[in-house]
Amino acid sequence: MQQHRVPVVVEVILERVTNISMGTEINAINEFEELAQNRADAPTAIALLD
After folding, report:
1. What is the C-alpha separation between 50 and 35, in angstroms, rounded?
2. Please, are residues 22 and 28 in contact by the beta-carbon 8 Å criterion?
3. What 3 state SS string does 1-50 have?
4. Domain interval for residue 39
5. pLDDT by position in tens, the chain (length 50)
6. What is the pLDDT of residue 19?
7. Number of domains in the chain
8. Which is nearest to 35 in space by CA: 21, 25, 22, 49?
9. Which of these, 31, 11, 27, lies nearest to 19 by C-alpha position?
């Protein structure tokens, strides 16, 4: 297996009040925005679904 060393960008958004009520459980997450439906909404996230 060939290894690559590439830079990685990690984005973390912390909000003190807005999302704190969701708790720490992964199944209790509420999406406040519409999910991506087509390539224009999130080109890199769902490009493989076409």
Report:
1. 16
2. yes
3. CCCCCCCCCCCCCCCCCCCHHHCCCHHHCCCCCCCCCCCCCCCCCCHHHC
4. 1-49
5. 678 788 888 877 766 555 555 566 767 676 677 777 777 776 665 556 55
6. 53
7. 1
8. 49
9. 31
